[in-house]
């Protein structure tokens, strides 16, 4: 055998050659991962790219102060090549995350189909947010028309913030004040028509985006408290929520200094 004729250093060197070749190949081969980072945030009480995010007709609308910022993550495209070196570089950074591509994008779909899917999810989220908000306020969707416009964002994770924005514009805290208490509040979470708040992904990155853009309070689905605390930026307070009613109550308690504010 060849190895029996070699000294130990030479044998190790010969064995290392195919391993090194495999590692070199892996370093440049595309892998089934997406690299993610903190994305944009948008104040749903204000404008995005010159257009109001929330437009309401058929009911008096309040002038609000403070901000309600929905949060996002940015991910490499579904057709973008991710190598082992990219994964290793991102793995050791707190402002990056490596996620299975299938957890970010539907498996087996084309880029066009994925974009369509995300657009449909956003539209459904907006419809559910409108229904949940108007039901909470005991208003009829036949009389009150709500239009939600947020360019270049897809998926359902802004549902909770859309709902709270509608409520703040129509009712505020119910006592003439703002639901935000004048603060910059960020958050994430899906919303059901029954007001249930659902979990989303990338919470640890979204908290970083929120703090970067001035938020001091972050509304997080209770089931994702552990993820939210993992890389929590200094100066950002987590508020755990499971329902629209609970989220509103927590914000009212923050403003008044009375009542319970559930943390993580």
UniProtKB/TrEMBL annotation:
GO terms for biological process, alphabetical: proteolysis
Segments forming domain Lon proteolytic: 154-237
Known EC number: 3.4.21.-
Main enzyme class: hydrolase
Gene3D superfamilies in UniProt: 3.30.230.10
UniProt keyword terms in alphabetical order: Hydrolase, Protease, Signal
Entry-linked InterPro entries: Lon_proteolytic, Ribosomal_Su5_D2-typ_SF, Ribsml_uS5_D2-typ_fold_subgr
Chain ranges passing through the membrane: none
GO-annotated molecular function: peptidase activity
Leader sequence segment: 1-29
Name of protein: S16 family serine protease
